[in-house]
Amino acid sequence: MRIQQLSELLDYVVSCRIEMAKLYGRLHAQADSSRVKLMLEYFQQHEREAAEKLENYIDDAPKRVLDTWYKDIVFEDFIARCQKLNLPGNMTEEDVLEQHLVLDNLLIDLIEKTAGSSATLETKGALEDLVRAKRTQQQRLVHSSIRMDDI
Fold first, then answer.
1. Which long-range contacts (CB under 8 A, 24 or more apart) does 127-131 make?
2. pLDDT tens, 107-139?
3. Where would I find the H helices in the chain?
4. How many Cα atoms are found within 13 Å in the side-chain-facing hemisphere of 33?
5. FRET label pair with 52: which of 19, 34, 135, 136, CA 20 to 30 Å apart?
6. Is the pTM of this model over 0.90?
């Protein structure tokens, strides 16, 4: 996928987050373990909230930042990747967490790469702030997932 404008990129990341939530719903239906199902429900809700927060961010962002143009931002078809992804019914919490981190890091890295290609400090700073917030959320999610093991 080729992305030319920041608004396109952020809209695409929202779509990717929604697709991740759908993926976790599909995996939930296939999972054998009640603990894995609980984790998938948690991840599904997390992705829905992440998509909503990013939509709010887009709504509040300055138009001049969203209208920033880029050359050569190319990204894999993340949505197709989510649609093709499958885990066996006997998936473990570790399998789910590992796969989530792979997907989550792909999206965070895309935003980080875009920040590095930004022509203005304002746009670069806004994207770097977004990356920091996503990394912090990711750490919290991992800690919450680990705490689930203690239950």
1. 127/6, 130/57
2. 999 999 999 999 899 999 999 999 999 999 999
3. 6-30, 34-60, 63-66, 78-84, 93-116, 121-149
4. 15
5. 34
6. yes
